[in-house]
Amino acid sequence: MPALTLAQSAIDTLDVTAPRAFGWRIGDVFERLIVLRLHAPYRLVGDSLPPAGRHTPWLALERPAIDEDTAGATTTYRIRMRYQLVNISPDFPDIALPEIMLRMSNGKETQQALIPASRLRVGTITDFTGHDRRPPQAPAPLPPAPWRQGVWGALLCLALAGLAWLQWGRAFGVGARPFAQLKRRLGGAGDTAWSGDAYDEALRAIHHAFNTTAGRAVFGETLDDFLVDAPRFVAASADIREFFRRSSGHFYRGAADVPVYSRAELTRFVSVCADLERGLG
């Protein structure tokens, strides 16, 4: 497997044109343009671009369009990423445009460069705080007496089913506990050394668990908001802040002095978060 390093010698220039940061509504389509110029013999690894499809609860991505042009000792790639806003909640006015990890290879060495996540402010079409503006209507007549008991019985069954879900379904719903899922994945590998992209993938998986828990992208500078919204994680706030510090140093700054987690350390951190997620902290 080729060595994997942060992009240093491969990139001549890297420019990203992001969509405007506000004013988007459901159904809107917008574009993120990436212009990447590489020194020969490096070339873009095509499968480092995300595939078409649904990527977050809010966004769907069309197949990326790539224009390639070689001039002298450089190759220029113009990458157009077209997203559609397919879901909006009035509770989450800010959503994340996902990060992209580009990879470049010369056949012997693979380098990488991170296009960081960015934030978009979205709005709903319906005014959820407004009043019902439909004209007054007379209430529908009650069903005839023979059917009335059946209607109330059906409503009672629905209410009992809802209570059962709150009591037991959420306790056993795997999708509601992203850290529990991640704990099983990391724990199954034992305390082995990191290889290839495994460390980067583990860090990104933990970020995804925080984002899923919050229902939005969680950044280092918004941890205070996350802890207010999810107070059960306050007990591990120091460890959480340290994780975001190390992850930021690893991905964004390539800092050599940032300690790398061992697999055992990262598994213990995820285990603590999984316990807090279940209210055991």
How is this fold's topology laid out?
Elements: E1 3-6, E2 11-17, E3 24-25, E4 29-39, E5 43-44, E6 53-54, E7 59-61, E8 65-71, E9 74-85, E10 94-97, E11 100-105, E12 109-115, E13 118-123, H1 145-172, H2 178-187, H3 198-214, H4 223-229, H5 237-253, H6 263-277
Parallel strand pairs: 1-12, 3-13
Antiparallel strand pairs: 2-4, 4-9, 5-11, 6-7, 7-9, 8-9, 10-13, 11-12
| Count of distinct strands | 13
Q: What is the tally of helical segments?
A: 6
Distance between the termini: 41 Å
Number of domains: 2
Low-pLDDT parts are: 1-5, 169-175
Q: CATH top level of the largest domain?
A: Mainly Beta
Strand content: 25-35%
- CATH architect. name of the largest domain: Sandwich
Query: Strand pairing plus helix content: what structural class?
Result: alpha+beta
CATH topology group of the largest domain: Immunoglobulin-like
Mean pLDDT level: 82
H-E string: EEEEEEEEEEEEEHHHHHH
Radius of gyration: 24 Å
Please estimate the helix content. 25-40%
Main β-sheet: number of strands, strand sense, barrel status?
A: 6 strands, antiparallel
> Which word captures the global form?
globular
